[in-house]
Amino acid sequence: MRCRKAIMGLVLALALTTLALCAVPTGAAGRADGRSGGRSAGVSTFHGWAFDTCYAPPVGTMRRWLKSDYQAVGVYFGGRGRACKRQPHLSLDWMRAVRGMGWRVLPLYVGSQSPCVIAKNKWGVRIGRHAWRQGTGEGRDAVRRAKALGMRRGSPLYLDMEVYGYRNEKCARTTLAFVRAWDREVRRQGYVPGFYSSADSGVRHIETARRAGVRDLPAVMWFARWHTRPHLYRERVLRRDARRPAWRIHQFAGNVKERHGGRSLVIDRNLVHAPVARIR
């Protein structure tokens, strides 16, 4: 039974991963060829620097920020747990405009959070009693919202799960059921399920489940480990051979203020080698 596998996975010892240095990219984009890591045809990938910020910036700011080293932007496009629910600039026109400038988009969906989420401001959006049903419904909602913003099949949708006490077995089972159901629904509809969380919380939990053979897990891992040099393939909680190449994002700094082209934003910094949205 898959749930039993998940429980077993929680008690597995985590092996340390080493080596596999990653070269700092200048920015490159390509299309997945279907020959490596189970990659699907029609998935567009990007290798370079990205920033994410709570509110999608105005088109004018995005144009000014072309002067920066960033070539991709993370946008919070939906989910009941999203902090910046009102997105005055995010629309189909915005998506098309930034695509026309050459930006790649990383879509983040902040859905229901783990029952043992640490942040008090997320307690009101915790996963309920029917985790699988809820995950399926929110996966369906993520796809619907992605389509409304012009994101085509083959686009990644990154589920944002904030830090939680994954060592609590009951909570971990509930969280994993929700994530798996969300992933399955997103994948069923032709999109690529991704996962964002702290490296020492959600990422460690999901990686442990993967090693235990649990199915319906995220295809792409966006791990947050701040106050360290940017890297993709030296993260200690991810096995060296897991989700590579082109299936990882490292958020290496957060809540930093940067100014480019005369416009300032408070952002998180990311190094990316992963799928990006395909915008019609």
Question: What is the compact description of this entry?
Answer:
The protein is α/β, with parallel strands linked by helices and 280 residues long. The protein is 27% helix and 25% strand.
Structural summary, described in words:
The structure is a single chain. The protein has 280 residues and is α/β, with parallel strands linked by helices. It is 27% helix and 25% strand. An 8-stranded mixed β-barrel has the order 2-3-4-5-6-7-8-9, surrounded by 4 helices. α6 links the parallel β6 and β7. α1 crosses α5, α1 crosses α6 and α4 runs parallel beside α5. The termini are far apart.
Q: What tags apply to this protein structure?
A:
single chain; 280 residues; alpha/beta; 8-stranded mixed barrel; 6 helices; disordered N terminus
Helix content: 25-40%
Distance between the termini: 40 Å
Number of helices: 6
Quantity of strands, as a count:
9
- Rg is 18 Å
Integer average pLDDT: 88
Q: Which SSEs are present, and which pair or pack?
A:
Blueprint: H1 2-10, E1 28-31, E2 44-52, H2 59-64, E3 72-78, H3 92-101, E4 104-109, H4 131-148, E5 156-160, H5 169-188, E6 192-198, H6 199-211, E7 220-224, E8 248-260, E9 263-276
Parallel strand pairs: 2-3, 3-4, 4-5, 5-6, 6-7, 7-8
Antiparallel strand pairs: 1-2, 2-9, 8-9
Helix pairs in contact: 1-5, 1-6, 4-5
